[in-house]
Amino acid sequence: MSELASLDAPLTQPNVLEGQPLEIVERDGVRYTILGTAHVSKASADGVEHLIKTGEFDAVAIELDAGRHAALTDPDRWSKMDLFKVLREGKAGMMAANLALSAFQQRIADQFGIEPGQEMRVAIKAAKEANLPLLLVDREVGTTLRRVYRNVGFWQRMTLFSGLLAGVFSNEKVSEEEIEKLKQGDMLESTFSEFAKSSEKLYTPLIAERDQYMAAKLRENAINNGQPRHRNVLVVIGAGHLKGLVNHLKTDSEDSKAITGRLEVIPPPETWTKLLPWLLVAFVIGGFVIAFVRDPSIGLGLLSDWALITGVLGAVGALAALAHPVTILVTALAAPITTLHPLLGVGLFSAAVELWFRKPNVGDFNSLRKDVTSLRGWYKNRVARVLLVFILSSIGASVGFWIAGARVVQILGR
Length: 414
What we know:
Elements: H1 14-17, E1 22-27, E2 30-37, H2 42-53, E3 59-62, H3 66-73, H4 83-88, H5 92-112, H6 118-129, E4 134-136, H7 141-151, H8 154-169, H9 176-184, H10 187-191, H11 193-198, H12 200-222, E5 223-224, E6 227-228, E7 232-238, H13 239-251, H14 256-264, H15 271-294, H16 296-320, H17 325-338, H18 346-357, H19 362-366, H20 368-371, H21 375-380, H22 382-412
Parallel strand pairs: 2-7, 3-4, 3-7
Antiparallel strand pairs: 1-2, 5-6
Helix pairs in contact: 2-6, 5-8, 5-22, 7-12, 12-13, 12-14, 15-16, 15-22, 16-17, 16-22, 17-18, 18-22
């Protein structure tokens, strides 16, 4: 790793940059000065500001995607969100995961008086003041999470999900050990670090792919039609990504757009995972048909059991989210139908009704990030409550599906 002594004189200022990892890579006529930062370190923020103010650079690249950049620069971003559109497009779960990550970040800020990502804020502000182009080189966080989801098995997904929930609702203080992890990596890596260390399938999309993606994105942004668009780029990334990014920047020969395009693709689900829901539904419907052929009264009994079990458990999920009474009723009526169609989910209906009766106001959106740091806040905030209704009613109806399905098997096996 390059030491300060290897840098040009204008960049050296030991009291600001001493001990901070720096690498310089020259490729295709572009000089990349790569600063590995600690996301919870004031020293890193000071180092970023110093380097930009030297006037040595004609562009600044940062480890953010457009969404996270907007979250840092637009305080009214949440209030502009169309929550119903989020539900309709099936992004409620992804939004909840993003809020969970934000909750962990806010807990650190509240406990230590440190705002993770401060060096990115400084880079954005300083680049703007110096009139320098700002290059966003990280992969969109939703894409990363989806690739993680596709790359691991069912039980590991459940483990990750439960771990994420535990991190959100835990009242325990963030440990010094966790803070040290943040000083070496980033928010995504820190949140899932224990899993990533022991699972190559998780490590690859979460960390290794992003190293390669950011290196390719740097080349893509700095070169235009084979000619350098920028000559001297300052790159601000988490220290944990420094080694991998430098390696890819030096050695990758594949076209940069081909790399980023490939790493942005969401892998399709395995064939069996696509077929299984349809097979299960076909089995249940087939059970109803057999029951009616044997004895119409048995068939009617099974249908009644199905409606009762799925409806009640779906409604219990909505009730657990303290949903509006009409939402609970709609969930009870919709669950028996939606559980028999793999493309429908009762959560969408429940959340839409809840949104209709309890419309979030501007204050809910503005306090969302703070509120989701506690279980009480998820219930108090109307935006978070809609997501809770979506998740818990879906879980309730799913449990009902399996219990009612077992009931079908039991009756037909007599």
